[in-house]
Specification:
The protein is 65% helix and 0% strand. The protein has 25 helices and no strands. Helix 7 (162-180) runs antiparallel to helix 8 (190-212) and helix 21 (551-573) runs parallel beside helix 23 (614-632). 30% of the residues are buried.
Length: 687
């Protein structure tokens, strides 16, 4: 209570001091406002825009302090005078610009003045609509000549003279910079606004003239106009930021301009490395936003007429495929022993180069339905290439070999003729396989192929999805075309397998017809084995060398041949009846020889010894071991019951016989041991 009593007078003094300070400050603001309004009105009448620009902003700022005093008549009167001055300034400035740059007729001879430059500074403080009106009227007046020169009925308005439009605006922009560059504030971006308005007008005018003369539009003319237009859009992106395309008029430009871009420079930069790249690959690709903010600002008008381009590409690709067919027939298949042998067909790279060119052209103009139409055409001719160039040129197989005798097939010279395909035909099959594999590009090896600078089907699909609108991405799917090329690969491998398989058939037939019961001693490998090995040594090195860039499919060939040959060999083993023990030993030796050759099949005849894939070795060992077990006989546990059943089906043996008949003559333990040792010596001698 004592403290409150003591400080009571101090509080009163503090309140009085604060009220006095506020009153003095308000009176000072009032003095400034009254004087400012008087000066503003005087300067406005004298068109002293430079002084007005600085004073007006200050008056507006001071007036903000009196919002709570608008109930006082004098304050309200001053506020109304400020508004009246602003309105008068706006009207006066617009009239000044109209006088200097009339809508009709020529410009004032004197050109821009300092008065108009200061008037623009005042417009920055006035209602934004004043500034917008100034910009609009100036640009309209600046482009009025363009509308006259390039009217729809003028010769220069047609597409073949589209360069003249862009040359005209370039001259106008240079002229503007020289004459009016300092008149408008930099943040108004007047040069860019003139260029943007020119683009809008040009797009409308071109659309109008193309609708009128649609029947005169040819592909070359359309592409010429598109090329020149997109070049111009690229130049705009180099010079301007595009800030006026979305921002309100008068907004300041960004301090750091955007990077210079060009729509013709495709983004082929390296992708993110490390884990980021792996994560990106796991996610669906999304199309990038166009780097050029002016992309399509004029060229959008060509989109309704793109059907002319699409139809042209359909025709051109059809002619290209026909040319590929004619060239193949004229030049013939790749020759064995040459660089072309087994290599990817040159027509494949030509096709994808053309695809890439078409895709870039179309995407520069539209990322909508025209890209989908182009994709459909790509799919059509990918299938035609697979059918006409690849599958259509595969050698035809024939199973008719009945005119050959067994004895002639086992002769080395005539046996070499058993192979159905010539070396050139084998080389052609490998070439077609390599081409289909290149198109498919399913392995890392394909990505490092000597032609990997071009494009494959998966990459083509990815690029199409990058360039098309996001909503249309799901409509791009080349899976069916990839399946078509996979079928070509499978058919090619099957042909190679059938060819070698057919070459070995006469030898297997001869094996099954040999008198194995009368074989008296075990010698070297039988003639039919020599014939089979000869055919393998003839075909496999050729196939391996021609599939050097696609080792994956050479391995598939080896596996498929082995899976076909071994069951056939086992089937013929069962036909070798009757057979003696010595005959079985000879067959066991032959089986071991074939097993050794099959294990060495992937690298047979090669100077570089390479270990066969484990998957392939497993197949050979499993299959040939089964053949060996068939020749070695039944298990001990099964012999007694099978021999008893066999005896019941045979007549009574003559006296002196041991009573135990079987398919093989039953040797004594000493004889069996001696024969096994001899067989081991023969095998070791061959190894």
């Amino acid at each position: 209570a004592q403290v409150k009593e003591i400080t009571r007078d101090i509080k009163q003094l503090d309140h009085g001091k604060r009220h006095l300070t506020t009153s003095i400050t308000t009176l000072n603001h009032l003095h400034m406002l009254a004087g400012g309004v008087d000066s503003l009105e005087a300067m406005t009448r004298k068109r002293q825009y430079g002084e007005v620009a600085n004073l007006l902003q200050g008056v507006v700022n001071v007036l903000e302090h009196f919002h709570k005093y608008m109930g006082i008549p004098q304050i309200r009167q001053l506020s109304e005078r400020v508004k009246a001055a602003q309105s008068e300034l706006g009207t006066q400035i617009l009239a000044d610009f109209e006088e200097s740059f009339p809508a009709q007729g020529s410009k004032r001879p004197g050109g821009p003045s300092n008065v108009l430059r200061d008037a623009c500074l005042v417009a920055n403080v006035l209602d934004p609509r004043i500034k917008q009106e100034i910009i609009k009227k100036f640009i309209r007046q600046h482009l009025s000549e363009y509308l006259v020169l390039f009217q729809e009925n003028q010769d220069v308005a047609w597409l073949d003279k589209i360069d003249r439009r862009y040359a005209w605006i370039k001259r106008q922009l240079v002229d503007y910079d020289e004459k009016y560059g300092r008149m408008f504030p930099e943040e108004w971006c007047m040069t860019e606004r003139i260029a943007v308005e020119f683009c809008h007008i040009t797009r409308v005018e071109l659309a109008k003239v193309m609708r009128t003369r649609a029947k005169e539009i040819e592909v070359k003319l359309l592409l010429f106009a598109i090329q020149r237009t997109t070049n111009f859009e690229g130049l705009l992106a180099k010079r301007f930021t595009g800030c006026t395309l979305t921002d309100t008029p008068g907004q300041k430009r960004p301090e750091s301009p955007l990077e210079t871009t060009n729509p013709f420079l495709e983004d082929e930069a390296g992708e993110d490395a490390g884990t980021d790249k792996d994560q990106d690959l796991a996610k669906p690709r999304k199309p990038k936003a166009p780097d050029n903010p002016f992309h399509g600002i004029v060229s959008k008008c060509f989109e309704p007429h793109l059907y002319v381009y699409i139809e042209s590409q359909d025709k051109n690709l059809g002619e290209l495929i026909d040319r590929f067919v004619a060239d193949f027939r004229a030049q013939g298949p790749p020759k064995a022993g040459t660089e072309e042998g087994g290599a990817v067909l040159p027509s494949c790279a030509d096709l994808f180069v053309y695809y890439k060119k078409c895709m870039v052209q179309c995407s520069q103009l539209s990322t909508g339905e025209p890209m989908i139409a182009l994709t459909t055409i790509f799919q059509k001719f990918l299938r035609e290439y697979a059918w006409k160039i690849l599958s259509g040129n595969l050698p035809k197989s024939s199973s008719n070999s009945g005119g050959l005798t067994i004895s002639s097939l086992l002769k080395e010279k005539e046996g070499s003729e058993a192979a159905k395909f010539t070396m050139d035909e084998l080389c052609l099959i490998c070439s077609i396989l390599s081409t289909a594999e290149y198109c498919l590009a399913t392995t890392q090896q394909a990505c490092t192929h000597k032609l990997s600078t071009q494009m494959h089907i998966p990459e083509l699909e990815e690029k199409l999805k990058e360039k098309v609108d996001k909503l249309l991405m799901e409509r791009i799917n080349l899976t069916g075309e990839m399946d078509t090329f996979s079928t070509v690969i499978s058919n090619s491998i099957q042909l190679l397998v059938q060819d070698l398989d057919a070459a070995c058939d006469p030898a297997l037939t001869a094996m099954s017809k040999m008198p194995w019961q009368s074989v008296e001693h075990v010698g070297d490998q039988s003639p039919y084995v020599t014939s089979i090995i000869m055919h393998i040594k003839q075909n496999v090195p050729i196939i391996r060398d021609n599939l050097a860039s696609t080792r994956k499919y050479f391995t598939q060939f080896c596996i498929k041949f082995t899976n076909s040959f071994i069951p056939k060999f086992i089937n013929h083993l069962f036909r070798c009846k009757p057979i003696s023990m010595v005959g079985a030993e000879q067959l066991l030796l032959d089986t071991h020889s074939l097993k050794t050759v099959l294990l060495d099949l992937p690298s047979i005849g090669s100077q570089v010894l390479r270990k066969a894939p484990a998957s392939y070795t497993k197949i050979v060992v499993k299959g040939m071991t089964r053949a060996e077990m068939i020749l070695k006989g039944l298990k001990r546990s099964e012999q007694s019951s099978m021999l008893e059943l066999f005896r019941q089906r045979l007549p009574t043996p003559p006296s002196g016989a041991d009573g135990g008949s079987s398919l093989f003559s039953t040797p004594t333990p000493e004889q069996e041991s001696s024969r096994i040792r001899r067989l081991e010596k023969l095998i070791k001698k061959r190894l």
